[in-house]
Amino acid sequence: MLPEKLSTDLTSLNFDEERLAVVVEMVIGADGSLQGSDIYRARVRNHAKLAYNGVAAWLEGNGALPRRWRPSMDWQRICACRTGSPRA
After folding, report:
1. For the range 25-33, what are the long-range contacts, defined as Cβ-Cβ under 8 Å and sequence gap of 24 or more?
2. Which residue from 12, 17, 74, 82 puts its CA 20 to 30 A from 50's CA?
3. How far, in Å, CA of 79 to CA of 35, rounded?
4. Which tens digits make up the pLDDT trace of 33-80?
């Protein structure tokens, strides 16, 4: 477990708060192959309140996926399928 200061403040992705991040960007080809990648620092802002229990329920098939998440999650699932990821 992380110390409380980290888990509830400095590294927590609270709704509409800016956080420092390290981004790993990957370009995936239609055949699932890695076409390019980059790693860089960024500032991120969480646009949804993602509670662990809500996300876990959806991943396990026990909850509904909020409509605003669908485009992003559908795209992630397509990428996982193309790369042969076990997360697909």
Report:
1. 28/79, 28/82, 28/83, 30/82, 31/82, 32/82, 32/83, 32/84
2. 82
3. 13
4. 889 999 999 999 887 777 777 777 777 878 887 787 788 878 877 877
DSSP SS3 for 23: strand
Token code pair at residue 84: 């042969």
Largest CA distance in the chain: 43
pLDDT reading at 87 higher than 70: no
Beta-carbon contacts of residue 35 (< 8 Å; ≥ 6 apart): 27, 28, 29
Phi-psi region of 84 (alpha: psi -120 to 50; beta: other; left: phi over 0): left
The contacts of residue 73 (CB under 8 Å, 6+ apart) are 65
Confidence (pTM)? 0.57
